Amino acid sequence: MQPQRIVVKLGTSTLTDGSARLSLARMADLARQVAWLQTNHCQIVLVSSGAIAAGREVLEYVELPKHLPKKQMLAAVGQPRLMAIYEQLFRIYEKTVAQVLLTRTDLSDRRRFLNARGTLEALLLQEVVPIINENDTVATEEIRFGDNDNLSAQVANLIEADRLILLTDQNGLYTSDPRLDAAAKLVSEVGEGGISEDLWRAAGGTRSGVGTGGMLTKLRAADLARQSGILTHIARGSEENVLMRIANNEIIGTLILPSLNKLESRKRYLLGNQYSQYSISVDGGAVRALKRGGSLLPAGITSTNGIFERGDSVKIQDINGKAIAAGLVNYSQEDIVKIIGLKTSEIENVLGYSYGDEVIHHNNMVLL
Fold it and tell me: 137 near 204, Cβ under 8 Å?
């Protein structure tokens, strides 16, 4: 099995195994699979629902309240319990977990987006399993993701995952609702051409009452992920060794192929911004280094043009003004001006902090 980066979305119906309470047996089995994958050189991020369900269990709420503050109250009670269970289960396999709570504004604001990505990258590098949930205790209707399917797709895009696995209480995507139509057939694969109108119409909402998602939200998440060059799987969470088998390229449930590969998706994003008014001019040595596949370092920069922020797409041009590359900057224009011509070891001394040695890393750059 090849090393890969995988985002796994665990819905409430999966964590409860269809009951009104968290299923420790199901959660333990999923933790075992995640631990095995991580041991076999995969990087795993979990996007987990279940905080409200855990809160209902603690406070003995029989029915799910419709009043948003009460749901937020249940989430506040349930989130520590949910994480405590995860921590105990992963400890069995000598794995460390971390809690990450997000709202929509964290990924719509560019600086927060980069900070979230940096945190997740650092956790994965340390072989920690990030467990992400929407910050239900502070989210409102205006800022909440609305469902963790959508959140998982955005996280997969955030960290440039290879796969997104959406675990549910159904075997996958069907031609119609299998609970209502005995003739419904499982769709094993959706091709690169995209999701047909028939499949959009066939996707239905939740009927369990324990989650906020449904097949429609999963289809929307898959559509977002495929446009980012990410393989997406929709499968039953109770299927034996489902995560391990999918990671080994076994077809389980529904596989949705990406419209572009990740490299092509990244290139299109960068090239789509190459005619930005922002630019960085570099010397001949830097031009040669970039053409050999190197990153852009402060020592090779001669000047900047335009006021840009960290994470913006910027052209790189030679001393004659010819554009040679485009990429995403790790530093703002204001910071770059302060470190022009310096060695990488001097960045922190001048700025008081560092986002890394590279002004633009070669992974975030495309030659023109």
Answer: no
Amino acid residing at 307: I
**pLDDT-derived band at 208, boundaries 50, 70, 90:** very low
Spatial separation of the C-alpha atoms in residues 138 and 344, rounded to whole Å: 40
Binned at pLDDT 50, 70 and 90, residue 270 comes out as: low
Question: pLDDT tens digits for 51-75?
Answer: 988 999 899 887 777 777 888 888 8
Reading the block at residue 145, the tokens are: 């993701």
- Tokens 């070669």 -> residue: 362
Taking CA 55 as the corner, what is the angle to CA 53 and CA 61, rounded to the nearest 5 degrees?
85
Domain boundaries, the chain: 5-260, 266-367
Strand order in the sheet with 254-256: 96-102, 128-134, 43-48, 5-10, 163-168, 231-236, 254-256, 189-190
Q: How far apart are CA 86 and CA 29, in angstroms?
A: 11
Q: Are strands 96-102 and 43-48 parallel, antiparallel or unpaired?
A: unpaired
Query: Which of 3.30.300.160, 2.30.110.10, 2.40.10.10, 3.40.1160.10 is the CATH number of 5-260?
Result: 3.40.1160.10
Beta bridge partners of 294: none
Query: With helix as H, strand as E and coil as C, how does 121-151 read?
Result: HHHHHCCEEEEEEECCCCCCCCCCCCCHHHH
pLDDT for residue 142 is more than 80: no
Residue 137: per-residue pLDDT: 62
Q: How far apart are CA 180 and CA 305, in angstroms?
A: 61
The residue among 165, 164, 190, 163 whose CA lies nearest residue 175 is 190
Type of residue at 59:
L
Tell me how far the alpha carbon of residue 268 is from its chain's centroid: 19
Indicate the pairing of strand 43-48 with strand 313-317.
unpaired
Class of domain 266-367: mainly beta
Neighbours of 75 (CB within 10 A): 24
- Rounded Cα distance between 246 and 311, Å, is 33
Label residue 207 by pLDDT band (50, 70, 90).
very low
User: Chain-centre distance of CA 365, in angstroms?
Assistant: 20
Pairing of strands 43-48, 5-10: parallel
| CB contact at 8 A, 317 and 280 | yes
